[in-house]
What does this fold into?
Amino acid sequence: MKIPGNDAYPFYQRLGSLKNVNAQLFHGQVKHWNDLVAHPNYDEFWQARNPRPHLHDLKAAVLTVGGFNDAEDLFGALHTYAAIEQQNPGLPNRLVMGPWVHGGWAGGTGEMVGNVVYTPSPSRWYQQYVEAPFFKAYLKDARPTAAAQLPEAIVFESGTNQWRTFDTWPPKAAQDRTLYSQPSGKISFEKPTPTAGASPSASAEFDQFLSDPAHPVPYTEATAPAMTREYMTDDQRFASRRPDVLTYQTDVLTQPLTLAGPIQALLEVATTGTDADWVVKIIDVYPDNTPDDPRTAPGVHLGGYQQMVRSEVMRGGFRESFSQPKPFVAGQVTPVPFTVQDLMHTFRPGYRLMVQVQSTWFPLVDRNPQKYIDNIFQADEADFQLATHRLYHSPTHASQLTVKVLP
It folds into this structure.
């Protein structure tokens, strides 16, 4: 669908509830949209369309290739590889993850996404040293000996901008460690402790913000008529300045911190409404004295740049099941667990790791009314309401991210 003008944000603001899409735009003529409206949950309709359970008894060698900056389908490559690996013991099955956008390994050099510069032509490196040997062995020579030398996982590490190889993905050497949100906008590997001199009832600490569906947080600062692939590496300083975005960051790092694999989020939250979305963003904060790069967009300054390296959203109603959503109880502290998709990134000495938490991400994600509706596609304009959201970081309700750290 072509958006009139150059900015999708006001277009979708004016459109209002998803209920208006058919009434104003599609008029019931778009089958896929009608399927979405008819099946808002992960029911039998969608389960039957999941290809992963069928990726068994494969005979041909598999090379699954994906991009860590794939705004369209990062999930697909990672979970296709995992499903084949689990259901086909002994099958030659390899994973390649580069710094690419969707299909970037086959089109373009892959040297740059947004304002982030990687190594010279990671796409050509992959084509020469991975793709060509694999195809030669299995398609031309019909001998797997050459391809058998390829590692199980060939993964690009951003931050240091180098290729890494592993016997498994995620790497066996990666150790689970937990980052905890702290008071005063801090995040660290230390678990929150009771406030000195405070009674047990007073030790429950939280940060809160007012979420207004009429003025949602944009997913990018740049004006665009459609989703930009570059948002995956965008500077998040625009979001840090908003009162409806919670920001937590480490002290300046003195040692490199390398994260490899998925992140398990566990947010301890409460809301005055009965539904809410929860967005988590993992961000690499550059030192203030980082020099500018002539290859970036005009006017972009890299000193203090907040590069998003991974992000994920969870619609709170699905926190326990994608098939059977349920409302929040207003005012009740509730755990919201979900998986943030894989990354391979090193936060270098002098940099900081930042986490942002928010409840709108517009128009990348449609607005949650913040009032529980069985089918959000049928929400009326009157259902959208203001809500105050709390994120807890107390000893008893410790919001946290479990990350995989490479030594």
